[in-house]
Every structure is written in structure tokens, then in C-alpha cells.
Specification:
This protein is α+β, with helices and mostly antiparallel strands. The chain folds into two domains: 1-30, no CATH class; 38-133, Sandwich (Immunoglobulin-like), CATH 2.60.40. Helix content is 14%, strand content 32%. It contains three helices and seven strands. The strands form two sheets. It has a four-stranded antiparallel sheet with strand order 1-2-7-6, with no helix packed on it. Strands 3-4-5 form a three-stranded antiparallel sheet, with no helix packed on it. Strand 3 (63-68) and strand 4 (71-76) form a beta hairpin. It starts with 6 loop residues before the first helix and ends with a helix.
Length: 155
Amino acid sequence: MRNLDLTPLYRATVGFDQIADLMDRALASDVGSQTYPPYNIEKTEDDGWRISIAVAGFSDADLSIEVNNRNLIVTGRKTDDDKGRKFLHRGIATRAFERRFHLADHVHVTGASHVDGMLHIDLIREVPEALKPRRIAIEKQAPTDADVVDAKAVN
């Protein structure tokens, strides 16, 4: 694990806090905790994505999806219904997990579904009209009498 101090970056830049925070999160993430549960991120349209998380063994009641301050937090807490059961081999991991995804500006969760052991979370970017680029028309004005120079006055 690397220890990298980004404090000089914070002191020397103004307005780039999001980039520094992103680098901080990427460098501070624990690799061991990021392998369970496995997930896919796919692009479904120009401004749309789907996160699919493998949650075999979890019911809808065991899963929670929350968006808080541009962070998508998916948690799974399995209720202990295995009392009295005796396993010879237990290969399906149903341990508790918390998976976090940092969302970009104007990205919103549009829905979630739990089908065949997969939790699908649909996202879309909705940029407000005020922030979209727009073309400004240049108007042509007809010349006025003040703009016309009399030929006799010039010669």
C-alpha cells in the first residue's frame, strides 16, 4: 500500500478540489475490500449507465441503495436465517458488504431492479438547460444614414 501525501496539491491549486479528492479516494481505497461483491458498469446510452452487482443469496429486504452527497452507497446485510442448518460446504458468500460509487455532476439514479441474483442500478446524466452549450445568433443590422458617407463631401 502506498502512502502519498496530496497536501501540497491542495495548497497549490484553487478550484481543483474534486480532482484531488478523486485521487485521494483512489489511492486510499483498500484493494482487499473492493473485490466483493463483483460488479460491472456498462454504458447503455450516450448519457446512461447501468451498474450490475452480483448479489447471489441476498433478498430485496437484505439490500439497501442510498444516494448521499453524490455518493451511491449499496449495502447488503444478510439476515441470519441459517440457524439450525448444517453445511458440509459453504461456497456462496453472503457476508455483509458496502460498495460505494462516486457520481459525477448531474448523474442521477433512475431505478433499480433485482433479477436472478443481480442487482441492476440505472443511472442517467441530466444536465440542466442553463448549463448546456447554446449558440448565440448574430444579428445583421441595416446601415443607417449616419453610416453612409456622402461622396461629394469626401472629394
